[in-house]
Structures are given as C-alpha cells and as structure tokens.
Give the backbone structure.
Amino acid sequence: MKWKLLLGLVILVPVLTFAIQNNHPVDVRFAEWEYQVSLAILVYGALVIGIILGLLLVFSSRVKKKRKQKRLDAEAKKKEAAAAQAAAEVSPTVDMEVHTEIASDPAEKV
C-alpha cells in the first residue's frame, strides 16, 4: 500500500509542474461551440476521459470473462452429471452378501 502512495506522489510532482507552467487560456472549438479554457485543464480533462474509457473497457472485458467462465462451469457440471448417470446405468449393481462366522473358541478359527 505504501508503494502506491509513493507512486502517486512521484506522478503528482510533474503533473503539478505542468499545471503551473501551462495555465494560459486556449480556444477550444467543437462544432458550434467555442470555449476558452486553461491548457492544463484541457489536457487533464482529456486524461480523465481516457482513464475512464480505459477502465470501462477493462471492466467490460472482465465481466465477459466471468460470464464465459460461469457458462463453462455450468456445462462442465452438466457433463459430469450426465457421465455419472451413464456410468450408473452401464455398470450393473452387485449385491454382495457378507457372511461372517463367529467362532466361540479362538482355537477353532481356521
């Protein structure tokens, strides 16, 4: 956990330096809209949008993977149950009777 905090601090220093050095306004045009925003805010906004899109892609791929694994597990259970049922139907049941004789005298045992 400490290494994550240290990594965050190492990344924070250049980010803050960038923000301080690039705080002049720039014109942003998209379709009919035109805005003036700080260059740092524009770059950070694009970064945040990229991070969010990346996380959504990773999350969706994990969800697909879990669904596929659940489906495969269900299929495996069905196949195991079918194999067990087929084995039970194929192998004849053998009733074995166990006869034990108890000798009254231990010397009489053969």
